[in-house]
Amino acid sequence: xxxxxPRFVVERLAEGRTAGRAPGAAVYVDxxxxxxxxxxxxxxxxxxxxxxxSTVRSVMxxxxxxxxxxxxxxxxxxxxxxLALFPAEERLxxxxxxAIEAAEAMQASICALGPQRAPYGPVQIAARVxxxxxxxxxxxxSAGERRTFAIAGSAPAAAVEAEQHAGxxxxxxxxxxxxxxxxxxxxxATGPVTESDLHRLARGFVGPDLVSDLGAGEFxxxxxxxxxxxxxxxxxxxxxxxxLQNRFGGHLDPVExxxxxxxxxxxxxxxxxxxxxxxxxxAFVHELxxxxxxxxxxxxxxxxxxxxxGTTQRMGYVTYGSHVNLAARLMSAAxxxxxxxxxxxxxxxxxxxxxxxxxxxRFKGFARPIAVATVAEHRDPVPDEAGYVGREPELAALEExxxxxxxxxxxAGPPGIGKSSLVAQVRQRAADLRWISAAADPVWxxxxxxxxxxxxxxxxxxxxxxxxxxxxxxxxxxxxxGLSEHRIQLGALVDxxxxxxxxxxxxxxxxxxxxxxxxxxxxxxxCARQRVVLQIDDLHWSDQETIACLPELVASLCExxxxxxxxxxxxxxxxxxxxxxxxxxxxxxxxLGLLAERVVGGPLAWPTxxxxxxxxxxxxxxxxxxxLHL
Length: 630
What we know:
This protein is an alpha/beta fold and about 625 residues long. It contains 22 helices and 20 strands. The strands form two sheets. The chain has a 15-stranded mixed sheet that branches. Strands 17-18-19-16-20 form a five-stranded parallel sheet, with helices on both faces. Helix 8 (about 235-250) packs antiparallel against helix 9 (about 275-290). It starts with 6 loop residues before the first helix and ends with a helix. The relative contact order is 0.09.
C-alpha cells in the first residue's frame, strides 16, 4: 500500500525523521463537476458509478502522471482537489518551473474533456489551478502502530491562494513562484532501505478497511465528519481520534493544516459499511468534543461516490457528494465546542441526542438555505409511536415483569422487528420507576462498555462538563451513597483516573471482580431508594466482560427491587436463564394494516396490505420504510 501514502514522507520516516521542512513549489488543483456528476448519477446504480469512475479516471490519471513527470509527488486528495509538491533538488530544474509545466499539462488534459452525460443534462468538468513556491513541512502523527501525516507550509498556502484567484480552465501563479529557492537539505545517511521496508512503514498509515477495498468506485451511503482544531491541539486530538476509532470505527483522511487551524476528516460507511454507521459517527464526535472543548465539528450523511483515484504511482481514497461538502461548510460555521448537523442526520440525531435548532443558514455552493441544528447532550431514545402496533400481549407481560418481577427479561427477535419500540412503550407506562439505559455496540468493544453508560448516568457524568467538574460530581455522588471505597473502579469506567489508579487496576484478573463489586454496590444503593430497571439494548453485540459478569450481577441483586431488561437478536446472548423471555415475530396483516394507517394517515386497501406483508415479511421497520417511499 505504499502508493496510498506519499513516498516522500515514507522515505523520510525510514530515515527516522517524523517531521521536517524543505524548499519547493506547490500546485493546487480544485476540480469542479465531480460532485455535481456524482449527485446526478447517484440513483443510476452500478452503471452510474462506472460513469463517474470513468470520468474521475480521465481527470485524475493525467494529473498524477503530470506531477511525476516533473519529479513531484501528490501530497493529498483533499475534497474535490489535488495538492502536489515539487521539492527543490540540485539535479533538477527549478521547482517553480516544474510546477508550472505540470499545472499547464493538468489543465490541458482537463480542458480536452467534453461535457459528461447525466440524466438532467451534461455536466462540464473544469479546474482552477494555482501554483506557488516557498517551503513545505511534513509531520507524521502516530499512536502505537497507527499513523497519519500532515502537509503544510508557505508553498501550499501560496498555491491555494493563487487557485482562489484563478478562473475555470486557468492556471494562476502566485508572486512567490518568481523568487529563487535554496536547494533542499541533504538526506540523512542510514542503512539500506528496501521496498519491503517502505511498504511495512506505509501500512501504519492505512487502515485495514482501506486495504480490503481496491475497487474503482461505487455509490455508498456515508456519514462524514469534518473536525477543525487549533494547531497546538493537533497532536492530542489525533491521538484521541486513533483511540476513538478503536471504539467507533471511521476512515481517517490525511490531516490538512492551514493558517486558521487543522482539519481532520473521517468517513463512516466507506470503504466498509457497518450497521449504524451514522450513530457511531455521532458517538465519536460527541466523545471527541467532550475531550477537546475547542474543536469545531460538522457532520452530514447521504449517498456519495467513493473509490480510489490516481495511478499505481500514487492513489487516494475519495468521497464525492454535495453532503460531504456541506459537512465542511458546517464545520467552518461552528463555534468552538459546537457540533453542527443538517439534512437527514438531524432526524437521526434527534432520536439519541438533544438538539438545539439553529434555523436556516446559507452556505457557499448551495442555492437554498439549509436548516441547521446543534448536537447537545445524549438522551434516551424516543419511542416510535407509528412503528408500535400489534404487541399488546407482549406489552402487558413486560410491564408486569418490570413492576413486579426479578432477574432478566429478554426481548429477542430479528432486526427491525420492534424490540426497542416494545421496551420504549413499557418505559412510558412505567415512568414512575428508575430506568437506566445502556446499549452495546458492534464496534466499541471496550471492557464493560454498556456498564460505563450506567455509571455515567448514576454519577452525573456529562460530555459538556470539564474533567474537574465530572470528578467533583463523581466524588460527591459516591460520598452521598456511602461508596467512596469504589472510587478507583467506578472512576475508571468513566475515564477518571488518579495517580494511584494504575497500581490498583494493574491486575487484570482481579479487576473484573472489583469492577463487578463496585457496579453491584452502586446499583444496590440506588435500589434502596427506588425500584430500578436496567435496560441494555443489543446485548448480542456486548463485550465478553459484560456478558460474563451479568449473571453474577443479577444474582447479587435478586433480593433487591431490580430487574434487567435486555434486547437481543440472539436468545443465547448471555448465559443466564431469563425470568421472562419474549420472542417477537412478524406482524400479522391486521397489525401491518394498523401500522400503515398510522404512517400514511389513512387506511390502505386490503390487497395493498397483503402486498406489503409479502414484500416485508411482516417486519414493521421495513414496512414503515416502504410506506414512507410509496
